[in-house]
Design goal:
Length: about 200
């Protein structure tokens, strides 16, 4: 694992995943998400310079940002690194009240929000370590989707669908054996298709 997620791992070429802050984002959360992507998915990760908030994705009637529009803007050509957009603003899709993250299954991009991950019991903010653990879980889940991994029904698996924070908090910080095997296969396939650096 690279000691600094701003730099690809030693001996590596271009990063395989870019964590892209969108607007003002907690710097520590971006670093924690990047470090967990490197450690648990064995991918070279770079935290990029921030981009502006995606104003064009704002849904004024909801006061939220349309995750689908953000994904379209983040996605690059197949030979580019996978991208995980990280926001501090609330995101949604048309058919759900909110989402913690959204991704292109087997595509190029994912986006996640810290907005609801900050919520604690009784309306007080969640402790810092809880926020950071939640951020790592959502980032891993969404990037695994981009690699091609679908939802899992195994209790505790990080790929189990999370309808809210209570479910997310019960998930393990890792994948079940079946998802681990499938992830290894998908990652190898994806990297075999990447152009040589």
């Amino acid at each position: 694992m690279s000691p600094d997620p701003h730099m690809p791992a030693a001996g590596a070429g271009a990063p395989q995943v870019e964590v892209v802050p969108l607007g003002r984002v907690n710097h520590t959360a971006a670093q924690v998400v990047a470090a967990n992507l490197q450690a648990l998915l064995s991918l070279d990760v770079l935290v990029t310079d921030p981009r502006p908030e995606p104003a064009q994705a704002l849904v004024p009637t909801r006061g939220q940002y349309d995750a689908s529009l953000i994904l379209q803007e983040l996605a690059g050509p197949p030979e580019s690194p996978l991208r995980l957009g990280l926001m501090d603003l609330d995101i949604c899709v048309p058919f759900l009240t909110y989402v913690l993250g959204e991704s292109q299954l087997g595509g190029q991009a994912a986006v996640m929000s810290l907005f609801r991950l900050k919520q604690g019991e009784g309306g007080v903010p969640a402790p810092r370590h809880v926020l950071l653990e939640r951020a790592a879980k959502v980032g891993l889940h969404e990037v695994a989707h981009v690699l091609g991994l679908e939802h899992c029904r195994t209790a505790g698996c990080l790929m189990r669908f999370s309808a809210g924070l209570a479910t997310l908090d019960r998930l393990n910080m890792g994948f079940c054996p079946a998802c681990e095997r499938e992830l290894a296969r998908l990652r190898a396939y994806r990297m075999s298709r990447a152009p040589a650096q």
